[in-house]
Amino acid sequence: MGELRLAADALRRVFAGGAGVHGIDLEVAAGQVHALVGLNGAGKTTLLRLLLGMLRPEAGTVRIDGQDLHDAGPEIWARVGHLVGAPLAYPELDARTNLAVAARLRRVPTPLISGMVDRGLAELHLAEYARVRARVLSSGNRQRLGLAGVLQHDPDLIVLDEPTSALDPAGVILLRQALLGRVHAGAGVLVSSHHLDEVARIAARISVINRGRLIGTLDPHGVDIERAFFALVHADEERRAS
Amino acid sequence: MTAALAVETRKLIAARVVQTATVLLVVGVAIMTGALTAAADAGNEQILAKLGDLAGEHGWARLLGVAAQIIAAAGLLTFGVTLAWVVGREFADGTISALFALPVPRASIAAAKLVVFLAWTVAVAFLLIVAVAITGLVLGYGRPDGQAVAGLARLLALTALSGLLATPAAWVATLGRGMLAGIASTITTIVVAEVLVVAGTGAWLPVAAPALWAIDPAAVSAPQLALVALIPFVFGALAMQSWARLQLDR
Q: By the 8 A CB rule, do A123 and A178 touch?
């Protein structure tokens, strides 16, 4: 395995009632897509939030490009792109302005923003909506807009939570191509999904999460990975019940 | 901070909520001030009774006194609601999660929101005194004399100070993870101020001092007025700290 873009060690955060993340180790290597697959409520979003500092862990550490999350400065965060939750698409701003906002928040130098936004709009096929306010975009196009804002600055680490949920099949293919291009350039990608969608299928590693713990991995080249996934989850549930 | 200021400025200028608040406050204050003053000029007993000490005044003096009373409540309410939206909308729209893991610190984003908001309140203040001046001219009070110009300048200050007094809404909206908490805190502040002014706390209460000063400058001392400046510093710092320490845990 090459250089690590992201490494979590014994990450733990448990909410009242017992849900949360119960000690997870996870790595995302440069030039690799790592998919995180689990049923609804398995702890995927909590884990991604812990990895990005949206939640503070009770125990464990997170490193981005070798730097502890506590000490990560602007130069580290400028190289990250993430979509965990709602896309950064302010309804009162048009698509172009929303992308300019996303670029500014990544401290992209002003002279570079216009060209970057043009490429972002073109890559996710949003050019015709450049001057359309996000308020009137479909949820799928808002999701595309959010993804364009995450990807346009060519981050080294990309973290996406169920990015295909609002996308049409054409959007899924665009995202897959956009991710593969960046992975080939050395980015590390962590993508979560509640099913083995088209994006999970481009992963070099697929980790399965259930009830806040990683319970195994799937072979991305396996013949029936859907069945293997459910077998893992079922076995974990049986083990807990016994 | 430059990046955060640029982003927040773009958002504020494009926001319908802010545009609507501007029009409602400026036009609303002009119409209410004009209607009340015109009614008083016509000798309406009920209105004159409600105006209290101002009933004995005439022309510009009465108009500006009435405007100050209306702005003191309507300004704080409008500004508090708007600031609650400026902050709370990130939680309501779910965009708050996109404001994590950025090279721009969240405390800078919170500070930029406050700076841009306060700049807007100053712009509104200028529009407001123009609207009040036009109202006076329409009512036939003639060119404002030196006293009236000073009164208009105090209205400008009152409006801008009302913006400073609204800053707690930013902190409360953060604690409440949405705009409703910020709006509720603003309404509570206005009600508490009214009650305490009636109880005689008067000018030592920062939320009441600017209005009392705008109506009668002699009634409020400089230290009493200066206390108003503490509000944005204290609550701005609290809002920035809350944004810096924010977690998406509820």
A: yes
Q: Which of residues 2-61 of B touch A (CB under 8 A)?
A: 3-4, 6-7, 10-11, 14-16
> Which of B2, B90, B100 has the highest number of chain A CBs within 10 A, making it the mutation to test binding with A?
B100
The C-alpha of B2 sits at a distance from chain A's nearest C-alpha, in angstroms, of 9
Where helices occur in B93-208 by DSSP H, the ranges are: 106-138, 146-165, 168-175, 179-199
Say if the Cβ atoms of A93 and B95 lie within 8 Å: no
Q: Would you state the structure tokens that stand for residue A91, as one six-digit string?
A: 């309804």
Q: What is the DSSP string of B176-243?
A: TTSHHHHHHHHHHHHHHHHHHHHHT-GGGSTTTHHHHHHH-GGGS-HHHHHGGGHHHHHHHHHHHHHH
B246 SS3 class: coil
Assembly ipTM: 0.93
| Sheet with A188-193, edge to edge strand ranges | A80-83, A157-161, A188-193, A32-37, A205-210, A213-218
Query: If 0-12 CB within 10 Å is exposed, 13-18 middle and 19+ buried, where does residue A138 land?
Result: exposed
Contact at 8 Å (CB) between A34 and A77? no
Kind of pairing between the strands at A4-14 and A59-64: antiparallel
Point out which residues pair with A83 in neighbouring strands: A160
**What's the rounded Cα separation, in Å, for the pair B188 and B180?**
12
pLDDT in tens, chain B (250 residues): 899 999 999 999 999 999 999 999 999 999 999 999 999 999 888 888 888 888 788 899 999 999 998 998 899 999 999 999 999 999 999 999 999 999 999 999 999 999 999 999 999 999 999 999 999 999 999 999 999 999 999 999 999 999 999 999 999 999 999 999 999 999 998 988 888 777 777 788 888 888 888 878 888 898 998 999 999 999 999 999 999 999 998 7
CB within 8 Å of A217: residues ≥ 6 apart: A205, A206, A207, A208
Tracing tokens 């029936």 back to the chain, one arrives at: A224
